[in-house]
Specification:
mainly alpha, 159 residues
């Protein structure tokens, strides 16, 4: 039940988040929209890794549920990385590496507290449940990653 409440709350946040008209127009292309969804999954995974590390420093260990979330959703996270790697090409040190570095820099800093850690633990625990709704991961990523780096790269303002 708690998982449904978390999913519903995050879905409401996603529904309320606004996008610019130019980003919406650019994202209307199905290929671009799929890449943006992949980017959101990558950024969500990175966000959760950073939160897990920050919460550990705050005395709250999220690693078991974070690792469970990664395990249960490995195919989706790996598929997202593969799609974005295809976009940038496979040459090391080029676009994909720069992209991943931008994402890591976006989520690598920040402060946290035990209450925020508890919220992130609940999200990760919901997504770590193998019986969770398959729509949960993309809904959570949509709610938590309102302006993904990849969308900004693919759909620059005014495009």
């Amino acid at each position: 039940m708690r998982g449904k409440a978390v999913l519903a709350a995050l879905g409401a946040v996603a529904t309320l988040s606004a996008q610019t008209a130019s980003a919406q127009a650019c994202g209307a292309d199905s290929g671009t929209a799929e890449l943006v969804r992949s980017g959101k999954l990558i950024e969500f995974e990175t966000l959760m890794m950073a939160v897990s590390l920050r919460c550990a420093r705050a005395g709250v260990d999220l690693r078991p549920v974070y690792e469970g979330m990664l395990s249960v959703n490995a195919a989706r996270f790996n598929g997202a990385h593969e799609a974005v790697q295809r976009l940038f090409g496979t040459t090391r040190g080029t676009g994909y590496d720069r992209y991943v570095t931008q994402v890591a820099n976006r989520y690598g800093g920040g402060a946290t507290d035990p209450q925020k850690c508890a919220m992130f633990r609940a999200v990760a625990a919901t997504l770590a449940n193998p019986a969770s709704d398959p729509r949960a991961l993309p809904a959570v990523a949509d709610a938590m990653i309102a302006a993904p780096v990849l969308r900004d790269m693919l759909c620059p303002a005014g495009r």
